[in-house]
Amino acid sequence: MRRPVARKLAVLAVSAAVVSVGAAAPPAAQAGGRPGPAPKTPVAVGYGGAVSSVDADATAAGIEVLRKGGNAVDAAVATAAALGVTEPYSAGVGGGGYFVYYDARTRTVHTIDGRETAPLTADRNLFMENGKPLSFDDAVSSGLSVGTPGTPATWQKALDEWGTQRLGTVLRPAERLARDGFTVDDTFRSQTAANETRFRYFPDTAKLFLPHGQLPAVGSTFKNPDLARTYQELAREGVGAIYHGELGREIVKTVDHPPVDPASGWKARPGELSEKDLAAYRAKLQAPTRTAYRGLNVYSIAPSSSGGTTVGEALNILEKTDLSKASEVQYLHHFIEASRIAFADRGRWVGDPAFEDVPTKELLSQKFADSRACLIKDDAVLTSPVAPGDPRHPAACATGGTAAPTTYEGENTTHLTVADRWGNVVAYTLTIEQTGGSGITVPGRGFLLNNELTDFSFAPANPAVHDPNLPGPGKRPRSSISPTIVLDAHNRPVVAVGSPGGATIITTVLQTLTGFLDRHLPLVDAIAAPRASQRNAAQTELEPALYDSPLRKQLEAIGHSFKLNPEIGAATGVQRLPDGRWLAAAEKVRRGGGSAMVVRPSR
């Protein structure tokens, strides 16, 4: 099975390279020193390394570092810092994420869990008030939702372990971008408009993101001098400024005493973050998940994220179905059903392994997947919610216990993918949770704080069944983030992908992988393909191109039920071509299109 897959990938790669146009980073600055707006290109092919993200300025920051001799890790941190400027509602210093790294010298994959943590004083009743769980809206825009940030620690850990440059060096492009500004596009304005009401609850947020009290105009220049100074401080003092210094004390004060406009009438519940929480935080090195799929090795992030286990289990369920020969209807049917089952098992078994007994190895076993795959029928649909299986004691077609609903996760995370001339690869997804995070800006610092703690279950769905995702002291909430790197049988890179999108991240990565590996779509087309997302719910979400297509009716005839989702995810990826070139790919349309660049383009 390995050799046919490898041959098909090689043919696909050459075909993609022939039709793609290379894109390189624009010059660092125009006359007068201000960066010009970087053009967006969804696919690029060439040598010397590649970067793909949702934003052209951020991608250009990574390319700048690669051009100056940095490796993939250096460029990934530079790109992430720049996304903190241009995508401040999705990521930044006040958030967290998961970092997956392929080391070309040793042909091994390593990961960092940089997820935010609950305060050490938190317990399972963190979001309970008067005996009832808070509403999601009340919890989000409050100090109560803010976890200890993990992004700065992740940057430093990655650079210490595998980078070649200092933090201060790789922060320079982002610091310059924050100081000189970037061009506001439709996505930035619309995201600001969607958050305008709650941004006005917090004067510092309104001052920063609603200049002169107005929404930023498309085409205007948005500057963030406060963030530029924050990056300068991190470059000078290191991330200890957050975890042991004055900047950290300012974060604690903001969380515990949210600076609300009294005239707004908003009750921003205080958090319980402390300097002790910051000092105790660690970005954790840990082993990746590994799944064998069609002769390839699929690596991703292990719990506290559920991404690696859930994508991996779904791939294992699909392993014995020849998706390359299936009709489009049968392909989507099996993809949807595998997702439904994998989410059922995720909800029951996955939480922070420092607190929960998570059967990671068993969830990823082919034996367990086979016991679940037999639930799927070609001519019928499973009824959601599907009950979980028992990975420690798999029995054919068996289910047991009570299904746990999928908790809401904010969709405006961001993902970047990087490769360098030495063959190293990074897939990195970072987030502040939902669009705009908690809505709270640290005064004078230029960044929003996360609302990651709302990824916890507020209360058990069923008091009689253990919920592995309840809050706890220092606990990491479960995530769906799924940065993934695929290697061939010789442990050389094939493709790396990832996406934002809350719980839809898992289905987006799964659909992109199967589109590329099984359906033999060029990577940029696998990313662009219209998406479906089933998360053990009564209805499957469809993007408009699927919802309005004949495929929907054909799937409904089998028994599927659907609802419309205007946009699911915003993936990026890189692919290693047989001749040694890199192909970078991003969205063609979603979020205004992504940005793929290489150091030295080729036709």
From TrEMBL:
Residues forming the catalytic site: T413
Record's keyword terms, sorted: Acyltransferase, Glutathione biosynthesis, Hydrolase, Signal, Transferase, Zymogen
Pfam families attached to this UniProt entry: G_glu_transpept
Source species, domain of life: Bacteria
Pathways involved: Sulfur metabolism; glutathione metabolism
EC number of the protein: 2.3.2.2, 3.4.19.13
Binding site for L-glutamate: R115, D455, S479, S480, G502
Signal peptide start and end residues: 1-31
Alphabetized GO MF terms: glutathione hydrolase activity; leukotriene C4 gamma-glutamyl transferase activity
PTM statement from Swiss-Prot or TrEMBL: Cleaved by autocatalysis into a large and a small subunit.
InterPro entries documented for this protein: GGT_bact, GGT_lsub, GGT_peptidase, GGT_ssub_C, Ntn_hydrolases_N
A GO BP entry: glutathione catabolic process
Keyword Transferase included in the entry's annotation: yes
Coiled-coil stretches: none
Substrates-to-products reaction catalysed: an N-terminal (5-L-glutamyl)-[peptide] + an alpha-amino acid = 5-L-glutamyl amino acid + an N-terminal L-alpha-aminoacyl-[peptide]; glutathione + H2O = L-cysteinylglycine + L-glutamate; an S-substituted glutathione + H2O = an S-substituted L-cysteinylglycine + L-glutamate
Annotated transmembrane regions: none
Subunit structure: This enzyme consists of two polypeptide chains, which are synthesized in precursor form from a single polypeptide.
Family, as annotated: Belongs to the gamma-glutamyltransferase family.
Name this protein carries in UniProt: Glutathione hydrolase proenzyme
Organism of this sequence: Streptomyces mexicanus
